[in-house]
Amino acid sequence: MQKPILVTGGTGTLGRAVVRQLLDAGHEVRVLSRGSRPANVQHGWATGDLRTGAGIDAATSDVDAIVHCATTLGRKDVAATQCLIDAARRNGDPHLVYISIVGVDRVPIPYYRAKLEAEERVTNSGLPWTILRTTQFHDLIARITSAQRRSPVVATLAGVNFQPIDVRDVAERLAELAAGSPAGRVADMGGPEVRSHRDLTRAYLDSTGRRRILLPVRLPVAAFDAYRRGGHLAPDNAVGRITFDDFLAGR
């Protein structure tokens, strides 16, 4: 009998795409979520909370691999990842696949530092593991602009480029890694294009029919300088296929 692959954060933007990829490839899937299983969901489901540990032992029981997509978007990622590792070790030796971010070791912002420490917890877990770092998702770039939709002026980061990638491209890679042998730290995965934040912002506004004044801003923090130097980019690994314009056209 095939053991399921557990997807943490399986109801999130990336997690949903990973679940679809795994199901389409014929894998048995179990989703970890804090909510109860919806009536229309046919695949496996486990209700649990990585922040408290409730339900995590049951969720990690008898699984072949774990794709860890859940995030608190902050420092609590470290404790949540350790909670998952501890439960997985109590229940066997599943392959742990962790999604991280390009530049977590180069861009000094709190969330990146938490992701880097979570990576270290994975590598020292004693479990077979794989870590994939990717550039920022298209969805994030769009949300930065959308959050300013009521303002007549939209701020962009002066002199900063992004290399956004589509979650469908990332999900395909994660599904492939989860079904394969543990590979350690695999090659970074970047989107197909490196474009200025101003250009990406203008493309988003054009796609929504909004006319706004763009205001380039410079932030007096070390993270801004790291972004300007391209610490979050992977130009030599531009393997994503879906461009930001493709993403916008499909919205």
Automatic annotation (TrEMBL):
One of its GO terms (molecular function) is protein-containing complex binding. Transmembrane segments: none annotated. It comes from Saccharopolyspora elongata. Residues 9-140 form the NAD(P)-binding domain. Gene3D superfamilies: NAD(P)-binding Rossmann-like Domain (3.40.50.720). InterPro entries: ComplexI_NDUFA9_subunit, NAD(P)-bd_dom, NAD(P)-bd_dom_sf. This is NAD-dependent epimerase/dehydratase family protein. The lineage of its organism: Bacteria, Bacillati, Actinomycetota, Actinomycetes, Pseudonocardiales.
